[in-house]
């Protein structure tokens, strides 16, 4: 996976760093809260998976508290209104799909897109993080792979009936990832995270997930290109 070497001149206490961190930290806090809420709601819809989904939701809540501690460690107040707006499009799409009983779409949004987005961000952040945040994030990213695996396994088991909806959901939601990355490109750069590395890590992990579910290599390329074309 693409990584960056830790910068020896990173000033974690500078006002410039803290300003950017206030938004990036808020995004990861809000992302974990969204995941907690999404898995909790899904637990009421996916028969036979309630206990497992509640467990995943609790893990996301624990992650959220860990990232809140990261902000406090740097004496940074997270910009939560910014983060809520940042996730609003995926949030609204998830809630619309849930109301329509489109659970495949819900799983693509949460267990594939959001989890993969988080994994990419954490992988690129760890090498440039302060020591406290690095330890927290290393623990979190291991859990996120487990959460991604839940979505993969469920969608793989239901692939034939889910395929058409997955393609539709991908077309509607994948372009949002590029818009989100563009919104935080400058702040991420201040923290030492390059957009190109984030995109590469996301696309590799997302593509692998689609392949694990049952899409062919050609189909994975087509699905991935839909996001790139819409974001161009």
TrEMBL record:
The keyword Signal does not apply. Fe cation 2 binds at residues 60, 115, 147. Coiled coil: none annotated. Its EC number is 4.1.99.5. One of its GO terms (molecular function) is aldehyde oxygenase (deformylating) activity. Fe cation 1 binds at residues 32, 60, 63. Gene3D superfamilies: 1.20.1260.10. Keywords: Iron, Lyase, Metal-binding, NADP. It catalyses: a long-chain fatty aldehyde + 2 NADPH + O2 + H(+) = a long-chain alkane + formate + 2 NADP(+) + H2O. Belongs to the aldehyde decarbonylase family. Catalyzes the decarbonylation of fatty aldehydes to alkanes. This is Aldehyde decarbonylase.
